[in-house]
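Input/output pair, single chain:
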Amino acid sequence: MLRTAIVTTMASIPTIALALIPHAPAAALRRRRIATARQPRQIRGAIVSLFSSDTPMHRAQRKLKSLILLGLSLSVLTGATPGAAEDIPGATDHPLLGRYKDASIVFYKASDFDELVFLKAPHDYGALLERNATDDRSGSEWLKLQGRATEIRYEIPAGRSSLEVATNYGLALKAKGFETVFSCVDKACFTGSMNDLYLLGQQLDPTNGLSTAYTGHARYLLAKLDRPVGHVYASVFSGEDNAQTVVFVRVLEAASMETDRIVAVKADEMNSSIVASGHVDLYGIEFDFDQATIKPESKPTLDEIAKLLTAKPDLRLEIVGHTDGKGTEAYNLDLSNRRAANVVAALVGTYGIEQTRLSSRGAGMSQPIASNDAEEGRAKNRRVELIAK
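Output:
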């Protein structure tokens, strides 16, 4: 019987569980099948009660317990079903996570290369607020990663709790080899005195325009999967607002950014732009992530700036650093200042340009030339600008 149960399809697992109850009358089994179909949240409790005896038969049945629970979670996390509400155009499930049965996608964003920030420990919202830095993700409680990024928000069918949704995702992730990095429930996701759940929604799902979406029973899970091709991080954030349950899933897969997309602007092209408009934006100077250190691949662009200054001995330049809109204004201003100063230092120290011909400053995120809502726009905003003085 044990072998028969193992090869039976997942769809019949609730019936198998009920069939394992010894000496259960047929009418009682039918009633329990009906109750199981109508109240799937009670299945786990019912299954636990099945395995309380200690006969050889029941010891074998207990071995099926974890398999049955896993099967129940995987049978709930499926692809889109005919009865589900319609997804937004272009949206699709992530293959490593799937979706809760009959849920619908209401937000979707996927990028071949982007940055995601995950919560990996309780955080102090009040301390961030005191510094007017609620967007600051530089603390040790945050995990900042870059790679192939996917963000999906689902609306869950009525009658399903955030506990049920979070449990199903947690079991499914564990079955696929993920290990839990951090998890929290409700106010345990905070330290300090400010712990209203709508604040958690603002921190972990900032694109959700409904501030109360997570005010009831918020649950958060961060898990990691190690693969030969690179690690994967996944977070699951579920919550309730009256009768509506939502879940926001985010996946970051290790991936390399294409670094050969920028062709160094030649010295004569820089000069033409400066003559025409007084400045030129450059994208060939790259820095280490979240640092002011200039990467070696920036050399072709630095070579061309030096050629321009050598060919135009009367030209004086202000080097201005610009960042995208991620992070706080103060943090980005400081970062852009240091980056611009390092460009000047490279031109003086490596190429022998006179210090008096150059100055530097940072503009931070204050002068975007594209929207910061998508990575394409943020990439345009991250630049070094040369301004003729």
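The chain has 13 helices and twelve strands. The longest helix spans residues 329-351.
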